[in-house]
Write a structure and sequence with these properties.
This protein is mainly alpha-helical. The protein is built from 8 helices and 2 strands.
Protein backbone atom coordinates (compact mmCIF):
# COMPACT_ATOMS: atom_id res chain seq x y z
CA UNK A 1 0.00 0.00 0.00
CA UNK A 2 2.86 2.37 0.75
CA UNK A 3 4.33 2.14 -2.75
CA UNK A 4 0.89 2.49 -4.36
CA UNK A 5 0.19 5.63 -2.32
CA UNK A 6 3.65 6.98 -3.15
CA UNK A 7 3.03 6.59 -6.88
CA UNK A 8 -0.44 8.11 -6.59
CA UNK A 9 0.79 11.23 -4.83
CA UNK A 10 3.92 11.68 -6.94
CA UNK A 11 6.72 10.59 -4.60
CA UNK A 12 9.95 10.76 -6.64
CA UNK A 13 11.82 7.54 -7.40
CA UNK A 14 14.59 6.80 -4.96
CA UNK A 15 12.81 8.42 -2.01
CA UNK A 16 12.62 5.07 -0.20
CA UNK A 17 16.39 4.87 -0.40
CA UNK A 18 16.73 8.35 1.11
CA UNK A 19 14.27 7.54 3.90
CA UNK A 20 16.20 4.36 4.70
CA UNK A 21 19.43 6.39 4.89
CA UNK A 22 17.74 8.73 7.39
CA UNK A 23 16.45 5.83 9.48
CA UNK A 24 19.87 4.20 9.47
CA UNK A 25 21.39 7.45 10.74
CA UNK A 26 18.76 7.66 13.51
CA UNK A 27 19.51 4.06 14.45
CA UNK A 28 23.24 4.80 14.58
CA UNK A 29 22.89 7.85 16.88
CA UNK A 30 20.26 6.35 19.21
CA UNK A 31 21.52 6.05 22.78
CA UNK A 32 21.95 2.27 22.97
CA UNK A 33 21.57 2.24 26.76
CA UNK A 34 18.49 4.43 27.22
CA UNK A 35 16.82 3.94 23.83
CA UNK A 36 16.28 7.69 23.43
CA UNK A 37 17.97 10.37 21.33
CA UNK A 38 19.99 13.14 23.00
CA UNK A 39 19.16 16.47 21.34
CA UNK A 40 22.09 18.25 23.02
CA UNK A 41 24.51 15.91 21.30
CA UNK A 42 23.46 17.56 18.04
CA UNK A 43 23.37 21.17 19.30
CA UNK A 44 19.73 20.95 20.32
CA UNK A 45 18.30 22.71 23.35
CA UNK A 46 18.39 21.11 26.78
CA UNK A 47 15.04 19.66 27.78
CA UNK A 48 13.81 18.54 24.37
CA UNK A 49 15.33 15.06 24.10
CA UNK A 50 12.10 13.26 25.02
CA UNK A 51 10.18 15.11 22.31
CA UNK A 52 12.97 14.47 19.81
CA UNK A 53 12.90 10.78 20.77
CA UNK A 54 9.14 10.70 20.13
CA UNK A 55 9.69 12.25 16.69
CA UNK A 56 12.42 9.71 15.92
CA UNK A 57 10.10 6.83 16.85
CA UNK A 58 7.38 8.36 14.65
CA UNK A 59 9.83 8.34 11.71
CA UNK A 60 10.30 4.58 12.08
CA UNK A 61 6.59 3.93 12.57
CA UNK A 62 5.75 6.10 9.56
CA UNK A 63 7.92 3.87 7.40
CA UNK A 64 6.09 0.80 8.71
CA UNK A 65 8.80 -0.37 11.11
CA UNK A 66 7.78 -2.38 14.18
CA UNK A 67 9.55 -4.19 17.00
CA UNK A 68 9.63 -7.28 14.79
CA UNK A 69 10.25 -6.06 11.23
CA UNK A 70 12.21 -5.13 9.33
CA UNK A 71 14.78 -6.87 11.47
CA UNK A 72 17.29 -4.09 10.79
CA UNK A 73 15.23 -1.62 12.89
CA UNK A 74 13.33 -3.93 15.27
CA UNK A 75 15.64 -3.39 18.27
CA UNK A 76 15.74 0.38 17.66
CA UNK A 77 11.93 0.57 17.71
CA UNK A 78 11.67 -1.68 20.77
CA UNK A 79 14.20 0.41 22.74
CA UNK A 80 12.54 3.68 21.70
CA UNK A 81 9.12 2.50 22.90
CA UNK A 82 10.62 1.30 26.19
CA UNK A 83 12.39 4.65 26.64
CA UNK A 84 9.20 6.70 26.14
CA UNK A 85 7.17 4.46 28.44
CA UNK A 86 9.96 4.68 31.04
CA UNK A 87 10.22 8.49 31.15
CA UNK A 88 6.49 9.02 31.73
CA UNK A 89 5.20 10.00 35.19
CA UNK A 90 2.96 7.16 36.36
CA UNK A 91 1.96 8.30 39.85
CA UNK A 92 -0.37 10.99 41.11
CA UNK A 93 -4.09 11.55 41.28
CA UNK A 94 -6.55 12.34 38.54
CA UNK A 95 -7.08 16.05 39.33
CA UNK A 96 -6.16 19.03 37.14
CA UNK A 97 -2.78 19.46 38.91
CA UNK A 98 -1.81 15.80 38.69
CA UNK A 99 1.40 15.00 36.79
CA UNK A 100 0.25 11.43 36.06
CA UNK A 101 0.80 10.75 32.36
CA UNK A 102 3.24 13.66 31.92
CA UNK A 103 6.27 13.02 29.68
CA UNK A 104 8.11 16.08 30.98
CA UNK A 105 9.63 19.03 29.14
CA UNK A 106 6.63 20.90 27.66
CA UNK A 107 3.30 20.34 25.92
CA UNK A 108 5.03 19.81 22.56
CA UNK A 109 6.67 16.74 24.08
CA UNK A 110 3.39 15.60 25.60
CA UNK A 111 1.62 15.59 22.25
CA UNK A 112 4.52 14.02 20.36
CA UNK A 113 5.14 11.18 22.84
CA UNK A 114 1.43 10.44 23.27
CA UNK A 115 0.98 10.33 19.50
CA UNK A 116 4.02 8.06 19.03
CA UNK A 117 2.87 5.56 21.65
CA UNK A 118 -0.74 5.59 20.39
CA UNK A 119 0.53 4.82 16.88
CA UNK A 120 2.86 2.13 18.25
CA UNK A 121 -0.08 0.55 20.05
CA UNK A 122 -2.25 0.71 16.92
CA UNK A 123 0.48 -0.97 14.86
CA UNK A 124 1.78 -3.55 17.33
CA UNK A 125 -0.86 -3.99 20.04
CA UNK A 126 1.69 -3.65 22.86
CA UNK A 127 -0.17 -3.20 26.19
CA UNK A 128 2.59 -1.06 27.72
CA UNK A 129 2.19 1.39 24.81
CA UNK A 130 -1.59 1.34 25.24
CA UNK A 131 -1.36 2.20 28.96
CA UNK A 132 1.22 4.94 28.41
CA UNK A 133 -0.69 6.46 25.47
CA UNK A 134 -3.94 6.45 27.47
CA UNK A 135 -2.24 8.14 30.45
CA UNK A 136 -0.59 10.67 28.12
CA UNK A 137 -3.95 11.39 26.52
CA UNK A 138 -5.64 11.82 29.89
CA UNK A 139 -2.97 14.34 30.89
CA UNK A 140 -3.64 16.30 27.67
CA UNK A 141 -7.39 16.23 28.30
CA UNK A 142 -6.96 17.44 31.90
CA UNK A 143 -5.12 20.49 30.53
CA UNK A 144 -7.53 21.15 27.64
CA UNK A 145 -9.54 24.35 28.27
CA UNK A 146 -13.09 25.02 27.04
CA UNK A 147 -11.81 26.64 23.82
CA UNK A 148 -9.70 23.53 23.11
CA UNK A 149 -6.25 25.06 22.56
CA UNK A 150 -2.88 24.72 24.30
CA UNK A 151 0.40 26.55 24.90
CA UNK A 152 3.80 25.39 26.16
CA UNK A 153 2.63 24.72 29.71
CA UNK A 154 -1.02 23.76 29.23
CA UNK A 155 -4.08 25.83 28.24
CA UNK A 156 -3.42 28.63 25.75
CA UNK A 157 -3.71 29.49 22.08
CA UNK A 158 -0.48 28.37 20.40
CA UNK A 159 -1.47 26.75 17.11
CA UNK A 160 1.67 24.60 16.71
CA UNK A 161 1.52 23.24 20.28
CA UNK A 162 -2.22 22.63 19.82
CA UNK A 163 -1.53 20.85 16.53
CA UNK A 164 0.54 18.20 18.30
CA UNK A 165 -2.17 17.69 20.91
CA UNK A 166 -4.77 17.32 18.15
CA UNK A 167 -2.57 14.76 16.39
CA UNK A 168 -2.18 12.87 19.68
CA UNK A 169 -5.96 12.89 20.20
CA UNK A 170 -6.50 11.68 16.62
CA UNK A 171 -3.88 8.91 16.96
CA UNK A 172 -5.50 7.83 20.24
CA UNK A 173 -8.91 7.79 18.55
CA UNK A 174 -7.61 5.65 15.67
CA UNK A 175 -5.92 3.31 18.19
CA UNK A 176 -9.26 2.83 19.98
CA UNK A 177 -8.30 4.55 23.23
CA UNK A 178 -10.94 6.13 25.46
CA UNK A 179 -11.65 9.74 24.50
CA UNK A 180 -14.66 11.59 25.92
CA UNK A 181 -16.94 13.13 23.30
CA UNK A 182 -16.53 16.51 25.00
CA UNK A 183 -12.76 16.48 24.31
CA UNK A 184 -13.35 15.90 20.61
CA UNK A 185 -15.92 18.71 20.59
CA UNK A 186 -13.44 21.13 22.20
CA UNK A 187 -10.86 20.23 19.56
CA UNK A 188 -13.37 20.79 16.75
CA UNK A 189 -14.39 24.12 18.34
CA UNK A 190 -10.78 25.34 18.25
CA UNK A 191 -10.34 24.26 14.62
CA UNK A 192 -13.52 26.13 13.66
CA UNK A 193 -12.24 29.25 15.46
CA UNK A 194 -9.00 29.02 13.44
CA UNK A 195 -10.89 28.78 10.16
CA UNK A 196 -13.04 31.85 10.88
Amino acid sequence: GKRRAARRFGMPKGTDKDILAGLRWLKKVQNKETGGWDAQKFEGRRGVSRGVSGLALLAFLGFGCTDKRPLEFATTVKKAMKYLVGVQETTGGEGAKSKKGWFGEQMYTQGICTMALAEAYAMMGRRNCERAAQMGLEYILRKQPAHGAFSYGGPGNDVSVTGFQIQAIKAAYVAGLKIPKEARQKTERFLRICMA
